[in-house]
Amino acid sequence: LAYLLKNRWNPMMRSGPCLRWVILTKDTLGSAYVRVEWGTSKAGNRIPKALWPITGAVDPLWDDATGTAWYRITGDDFTPAGTYSSDDVLRFDSQLPATSISVGGRSLAEAAALNIGLSIQLEKFYERLLTNGNHFPGYLETDKALSPEDLREVRDSLKGGSGILQAGSVRIFQNGLHYKQNPMTMGDIDLIAQQTWVLQQTCRVCGVPPQEVYDLSRSTYSN
After folding, report:
1. How many angstroms separate the CA atoms of 104 and 191, rounded?
2. Buried b (16+ CB within 10 A) or exposed e, 88-118
3. At how many degrees (to 10) do helices 108-132 and 191-206 cross?
């Protein structure tokens, strides 16, 4: 089996292109499957004869009663549709474990897409935050119930005290209103730090050094 993997999978395919197909498939889909074609040696032993890449859908199955694993394959140009034992199929998984099932790998493309989608959502969130003007420095608080007339008076008082000419003046509020400072400032919403985290997460998933995508935040002269 190791000789076939290293040299020639079958009469039509050498190992180099086949291994590149395995790497591309497992990184894209999470797992790459290869069918083992069995033959008989001169001594009458059962030995692997050829390897065929499986491009159809593969469904891993497990029987608790017999403790047997097998694969249900829809079929393609090289593999007829049917059910194959675990000895007939080789599975190559990505470095990320699957989240929904106990076997197989997770698609690196899917994981990277989630991080890229998070980056896009962060940008949209900050755009809405700044556009809507919700970056307020403080708010008014009271335990009393305010009527619509009271709310109108507060609103008019705030408008009358706005502008450069009213800077530094003392404001007096009625009905037990107290001014509270907003604990979250624009400095706490660090867009650059979160975008850097998303970029580094994508690099971790894909196995790419951050400096290869021009993230030089942690680079030194030595690297």
Report:
1. 35
2. bbbbeebebeeeeeeebbbbbeebbeebeeb
3. 170
- What whole-number distance in Å separates Cα of residue 83 and Cα of residue 36? 13
For 42, the 3-state DSSP assignment is coil
Q: What is the pLDDT of residues 66-79, one digit of tens each?
A: 888 889 999 898 99
* pLDDT tens readout for residues 80-135: 999 999 899 999 988 877 766 557 788 887 777 777 777 777 777 666 666 655 55
214: left (phi over 0), alpha (psi -120 to 50) or beta: left
HEC string of 126-174 equals HHHHHHHCCCCCEEEECCCCCCHHHHHHHHHHHHHCCCCCCCCCCCCCC
The three-point CA angle 92-87-57 to 5° equals 55
CA separation (Å) from 165 to 21, 51, 209?
70, 82, 54
Residue in the block written with tokens 């030995």: 47
pLDDT digits (tens, 9 = 90+) for 130-170: 665 555 566 677 877 878 887 787 777 776 655 555 555 65
In whole angstroms, what is the distance from residue 73 CA to residue 88 CA? Answer: 11
Between β-strands 82-85 and 58-63, what pairing exists: parallel, antiparallel or unpaired?
unpaired
